[in-house]
Amino acid sequence: MYTLYTGYGVDTASLFLGGFLSSAVFGTVLGLFVDDYGRKLACMVFCFLEVVINLLEHVPDFRLLLVGRVLGGLSTSLLFSSFESWMVSEHRKQGYPEELLSSTFALASTGNGIMAIIAGLIAQVACDRLGDIGPFQAAIALTVLAWVLIATLWDENKAEHEGEAATRSGWATLKSSVSESSALIWTRPAIAGIGMAMALFEGAMYTFVFNWVPRLMQLAPTALPTGIVFSSFMVCVSAGGILYSLAQEHKVTAEATSHGIFIMSALAMAVCAVSNQLDPTMIAFCAFETFVGVSFACLGVLRSRYIPESHMAGILACVRLPLNLLVVIGTKLSDVWPADRVFWVCTAWHLGASAVLALGLSVDAKRKAKTK
């Protein structure tokens, strides 16, 4: 996307900023409806939006590209709330053992990485044959396939309500979702800690996503094969899912694993901040992507363990508000600061994620101990 927008000669930073602002404002609101109106439906809406977005990418007009980024903000909110919420709900609906959720998240992290590797290779081939727009054309076909599979193979599941809650209007649903999700975040320190840790970690991750291409282009002596580099990153994400499975076998808790990846991610970003050479920077980038792969699994386990299923999508939507605000900050900093300073900010956010998670879980444990 960065390469495509650069080729169009449009303001890349403003387009990315528009997408994250859209996700922070409109995406949060949209996500609050998911639990009540149907998680399968939300996943299908995501696919529809992605097709529209990729069609708009064909037009080298800033206004239409901005519309695409705004729609991308909406689809991103659905991506990170609807699919996981559907899976956790369906897992419990089918009566599968709760401990298998950890294995499911680990397999999903590994599988996501493998599919992204394949996608990166397809993107490189499409780019070589069709130009920078090629990967977006391939994405349309794959998204349509995903929509068909969801429509035909998935069952719908929604949050269960009784009485007036079961027949409330859209506005009443929104008010209730905001009130209930906010109350859970405010009154349960573990949920607040997990939510803020997610926001800080993923805020740094998306800031990294915005910066890795220009940083490597700056350091690489020849043209950068972005598709191959992306596939390399996804190999690391898959490795992260495998590492989490190994941690499970050795009885390492998801809580301890989360602290470990936050601290190690901070170290990786610190290396990126101090290095002006390609090799150590690339190694640090790959290490960070490995920790991202671990985070997909262990944070998913923490969410399923501490966040009520009936409000999962709503709470995840609320968490995306501070997350996207952090990404907006990171994007704007990239315009005014050199890369090394931006990576120092990412380092601080990773350390902050470890701190708020520890605080939230500690306070929650003390409260539970007092009630016993």
Automatic annotation (TrEMBL):
Its main location: membrane. This is Molybdate-anion transporter. It is found in: Cell membrane. InterPro entries: MFS_trans_sf (IPR036259), MOT2/MFSD5 (IPR008509). GO terms for biological process: monoatomic ion transport. The chain crosses the membrane at residues 12-34, 100-123, 135-154, 190-208, 228-247, 259-276, 282-302, 314-330, 342-363. Mediates high-affinity intracellular uptake of the rare oligo-element molybdenum. Keywords: Cell membrane, Ion transport, Membrane, Transmembrane, Transmembrane helix, Transport. The keyword Transmembrane applies. It is a multi-pass membrane protein. The keyword Transmembrane helix applies. Gene3D superfamilies: MFS general substrate transporter like domains. GO terms for molecular function: molybdate ion transmembrane transporter activity. It comes from Phaeomonas parva. SUPFAM superfamilies: MFS general substrate transporter. One of its GO terms (cellular component) is plasma membrane.
